[in-house]
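Lab meeting prep.
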Amino acid sequence: MPLLAYTSDNGLGFGVRAELAQKKPGVLPHRAAYMLQLYASLQNYHYHLFRYDRVHPGGNERLRLTLNGVYRQWGKDRYFGIGNNTARIRSLAGEDEPSRYGLIQPLLHATLRLQLSGSLVCFLALQGKWSHSASDPGSLLTLEHPLGIDGGFDVLVASGLLYDSRQPEADPQRGMFAEASGFGTLPLGLGPGKLLGAYLSWRGYLALFPWLVMASRVMTELMFGEVPFYEMVLWHGSLPIAGFGGFEGVRGLPFGRFRAPHRVVGSLELRFRLLERPVFGRPSALQLGLFGDGGMVWGGKSPAGDLPGSTLPVHLTYGMGLRLVYAESFVGRLDVGMGSDPVREPTGEITNERSLGIYLTFGQAF
């Protein structure tokens, strides 16, 4: 199918996406699934992906294997510094804003899950990732020169426990998803640093009425050691999540708006089922979502030193959106979120401006 998406972080994008799910009675959510995506935006953001998901590989009814090959490129990503109170620099030259920089990250990621009992699962994940950044001499990233600006190759290993009782998986109506895991980079000497970390996450879903589901999420991550600046906006659990802000995090704040080695994010969402009608013989539904997100980061500071910015310890956003759910396995989502963004004026004063995030994308936020 043709792919059209838009986010306020990466602009309007186009591509193609193909998905195939092979069903088997008694095997959820499928026996095998394939997904191929080619996507690029007008702001030079690329997200090309191939995913293979196999339930019960080799006939073993306790295993699930997921393989991802990803090419990510941010042509105009933004770096605002490190810490919970960083202020955005007032742009005087449009797209040449001092926060802009480029980042390329191709990666391979494999996750193997072993069912222990019922909904309890343990997993082992292995990821190899190469990073390359580029920024102008006058950019904030170049001036601060944080760890990771010179790029490199890292291999990250993660392992932990999952409890997954979501039904159905793509658009849960009930159940929960909880994770406790640890991760770290292998000391190969090819990357910018060595880090260890812990990740905790909980997602819960409750059907208050047949037409209303309450969804909630809390996740936190702590990283220690030598942490590259680009790892501070990626979550290292079993599910690929990017951004403190952006379409998967605190919606309404720019992607990477606040970054540090430690962070916590919470979300509450009400999903109203407005309309149900079969499309091409498959069930489909239109949802209205009302949400509130919040979070904070801590444990790090910009190499250039702290500058006064936001005085709020927790950054809060709110918004609403529409979601189209097809065949219980495909979700198209349009979310609009609003928050507060501290801006440092040329005089040094701080102005708290309204921040708006618009996200036309795929999949529920959580």
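Slide two material, second protein:
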Amino acid sequence: MLGRLSISRYSPARKSENASSADNQQGSRSADGGVDPSETTRQPLGGSSSAVRREVARAYLLGALGDGTFNRLHRTFRFTQKEREWLEVLRRLLSVLGHRAWIYREGKARLVYALETSAKSLHEDRGALWCKTLSEQQAYVRGYFDAEGGIPQNPDAPLYVQFVQKDWESLAQVKGILERCGVTCGVIHNPSRRVDPEYWRFFVRRSAHQRFIRVVGSWHPRKAKLLQQRVKI
């Protein structure tokens, strides 16, 4: 979390170890006034973000901070991706909160894009503890998954859903939210303590894959497309 940042030009917004990404319709209203995520998260966020509540947009962005860095000098958050499309999703969600962001390419020889924002509301990051309602917690996990989650890139490969982090506490929070939503998970473990003692991960159990797709899903254009191909009618 931000309180643990070291003083450097760009510091991780959360101690992160991104998984090597092996990477609808309008829903009914939920009890807390938001759109039921079980019907709205199977595909990427649409062209308009006006239907997304501010609290849900912020929760998603807080979850996505694991893929970001924080510039202590300029007090800006920065996300980098080879795929500009997800950065556009982040920019639209930031606009819901009234924040501006700019996207640029990192050098002429690199196929890497960066989004930078000085969004003040992201400075108050307390992880999932900030999220009050179930829809906010699910949005937080969705953003966390889009930044930190791993799924097979090959749609013909056996499906797995994994979360990887160096922040054990935030990973445990995500696992707890998933299990409260009926998405059962394996234990948080370190696959190779000798290689990296702070490398933690867990998998969503195979029997819960379809429920994960329904209640969490993805707003990352590539991941959402891959998950949509796995939906069982």
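Talking points for slide two:
The mean pLDDT is 80.
The chain has one domain: 2-228.
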